[in-house]
UniProtKB/TrEMBL annotation:
Its cofactor is FAD. It comes from Neocucurbitaria cava. Keywords: FAD, Flavoprotein. Residues 89-112, 281-295 form the Glucose-methanol-choline oxidoreductase N-terminal domain. GO terms for molecular function: flavin adenine dinucleotide binding; oxidoreductase activity, acting on CH-OH group of donors. This is Glucose-methanol-choline oxidoreductase N-terminal domain-containing protein. The lineage of its organism: Eukaryota, Fungi, Dikarya, Ascomycota, Pezizomycotina.
Length: 629
């Protein structure tokens, strides 16, 4: 369909963004043949693109305009002035098309926190059925299960008929066998299935891979493609949303009549009969709202946008997971990604193995991860009273930044950290080295540029206290917004990640990982020369190491937060934008508080629940009606 033909029709629902959440919404709403849905996607259709399908080819997608928005943050004082490149999917399926395929689960308290912030119906038990709804879990063969130690998984908690496939894919690697054993020898207990609400331990994590075809399982493949032929579902790719057309007759909520978009430089408007649903993600969703006149008057006026809805929470509360990467040399007999990257002939053979046989190293996505509690990380000799330590750093920050936490998030996070079943950090162990000096260019981060084989031990935050913002600086939709994640602007984040880094480094002296590592003449693990650092031993040394060796974990959330309006919120618990009659946001930007681990699973669950909310309103006749308190 041409842009002209697309815009010549009106639709019940217009979805801005054909990414992870947008395609779930579109697929579920069009189950009703009487409902029409239009999707506007800024990127192209990458279905059957081998680079997307290959589970372990994701690094080849970053920084390429065909797949990636290639956002950049402003320089970050907390990471010694570095700019950070944010790979976000600009292709049908969004970031589910370009991510690591790692499949985590929010903890019980993560989601129950959402309820405490004023969102009834969004707790752990409320969302658990939606995790099962979108998922088809494929158990491993017995021989594989034994090698990777997947007995922690509880099959009764897993979905069996959902669109998204999850499994352990590819041949078992030496790291997948080594990692769980090392965690157990480090004093961790056997993990329980994260679906129980807690995930403390080191284990192999599931991946979003369809084992029947050995290809990525993602929103475009498994939500859109099976339903693409529905006559009530329309998709337009390479269509950049420029604004929501809003009508405000005074006295009531603004009503969306349609969406303006750009194709090949020409502007069009598509009419929405019932609702506009914004699914652009944590960067593009606040940008779309602000371009439409929804946001802080100070931000909008400076950018030359007329104010339609005064909603200062738009673009605020940006919260991201940080990843402190520790590259460690391993012996040559333990092959890592460097073995492929440095040998064009071997790389070509691996590509051909995947293209022709769906086999080889590009089938297996990363699995080796885990979660550690503050109880594990904090040494009693250093921190005899964890509670008073947290309170001291929280108090000092709140005094320096009064009114920075109107929703009361910090108190919930501090309480959560004191629970030994809750994680202070995610530990990631990747079979590749990293070039942490390339924080601004994700495609240059992996693998290592230095000789030899390398792994990364990553200390990743779970719920950062630091909060930044995403705001437009121009009325032009083609200008990227200003992204400031404010990494380590809260002293507690730096303190906790420094302690976690010291804890993670203790794994280097635990078998069997210990014997895998290369050592210098003093017996210390070998770091890359480019790190320009030695193994930190004190807390202050660890803080300096963290600031110099931290990048994003690509999990931004919160910029259209589901929080009461008077506390800085943007959407209510039905995901409707305050001050509008018929605009919703459905994606990670609505997360009112961050959760542990990789977030794609929660985006699917949130979108599934959102679809049910919209359907229920549709059937009751409440859709798009009236204002809210």
């Amino acid at each position: 369909m041409s842009a002209k033909d697309f815009a010549s029709k009106s639709y019940d629902y217009v979805v801005c963004g054909g990414g992870t959440a947008g395609l779930v919404i579109a697929a579920r709403l069009t189950e009703d043949p009487n409902i029409t849905v239009a999707i506007l996607e800024a990127g192209g259709n990458g279905l059957d693109d081998i680079m997307i399908d290959g589970p372990n080819l994701f690094t080849q997608l970053w920084d390429k305009p065909q797949y990636d928005w290639s956002f950049k943050t402003v320089p970050q004082e907390g990471t010694v002035g570095k700019v950070h490149g944010w790979a976000r999917g600009k292709v049908l399926g969004g970031s589910s098309a370009i991510n690591y395929n790692m499949f985590s689960m929010a903890s019980r308290q993560d989601l129950d926190n959402w309820v405490e912030l004023g969102n009834k119906g969004w707790g752990f038990d409320d969302l658990a059925p939606y995790y099962r709804k979108f998922e088809t879990y494929h158990p491993s063969e017995e021989t594989v299960a034994e090698k990777i130690n997947d007995k922690y998984l509880d099959k009764s908690l897993r979905g069996t008929s959902g669109p998204i496939h999850v499994c352990f894919s590819g041949d078992v690697t030496w790291l997948q066998e080594t990692w769980p054993k090392t965690a157990l020898n480090a004093g961790y207990e056997e993990s329980s299935d994260p679906r129980t609400g807690s995930a403390i331990g080191g284990f192999n994590q599931l991946t979003t891979v369809d084992p029947k075809h050995n290809r990525r399982s993602y929103a475009a493949r498994d939500y859109y493609e099976p339903n693409a032929g529905r006559p009530n579902l329309s998709l337009l790719t390479h269509a950049l949303v420029s604004k929501i057309e809003l009508e405000n007759t005074g006295g009531g909520d603004a009503r969306a009549s349609g969406v303006q978009f750009i194709v090949d430089g020409d502007k069009y408007t598509v009419k929405a009969n019932k609702e506009v649903i914004v699914c652009g993600g944590s960067v593009n969703s606040p940008q779309i709202l602000e371009l439409s006149g929804i946001g802080s008057p100070a931000i909008l006026e400076k950018a030359g946008v007329d104010v339609v809805v005064d909603l200062p929470g738009v673009g605020e509360n940006l919260n991201d997971h940080t990843a402190t990467g520790i590259s460690l040399g391993v012996k040559d007999e333990y092959p890592t990604a460097e073995a492929l990257a440095r040998n064009p002939e071997v790389m070509q053979q691996a590509l051909e193995a995947y293209i022709k046989h769906k086999a080889g190293p590009f089938v297996g996505a990363p699995t080796t991860t885990g979660f550690t509690s503050l109880e594990k990380v904090a040494q009693p000799s250093d921190l005899p009273n964890l509670s008073s330590h947290l309170e001291s750093l929280l108090s000092s920050h709140s005094k320096a930044h009064p009114n920075s936490d109107p929703a009361g998030r910090d108190a919930l996070l501090a309480r959560q950290l004191l629970n030994p079943k809750e994680a202070v950090a995610q530990i990631v162990n990747l079979p590749t080295g990293a070039n942490m000096q390339h924080s601004d260019t994700p495609s240059k981060l992996l693998p290592s540029e230095e000789d030899g084989m390398w792994i990364v031990l990553g200390a990743c935050s779970t719920r950062s206290f630091s909060r930044g913002s995403v705001h437009i600086a121009s009325s032009s939709p083609t200008t990227h917004p200003r992204i400031d994640p404010a990494y380590f602007s809260h002293p507690l984040d730096l303190d906790l990640m420094a302690r976690t880094t010291l804890h993670v480094l203790s794994f280097t002296e635990v078998e069997p990982l210990k014997s895998v590592l290369r050592r210098d003449t003093h017996g210390a693990p070998v770091l890359p020369k480019s790190a320009n650092a030695t193994i930190p031993k004190t807390l202050e040394e660890a803080k300096a190491f963290v600031q110099a060796n931290t990048v994003t974990e690509y999990h931004p959330v919160g910029t259209c937060a589901m929080v009461p309006r008077e506390k800085g919120g943007v959407v209510d618990s039905a995901l409707r934008v305050y001050g509008t009659a018929n605009v919703r946001v459905v994606d990670a930007s609505v997360f009112p508080l961050h959760v542990q681990g990789n977030i794609v699973s929660l985006v699917y669950a949130v979108a599934e629940k959102a679809a049910d909310i919209i359907k229920a309103e549709q059937s009751s006749g409440a859709n798009g009606v009236g204002g809210r308190q």
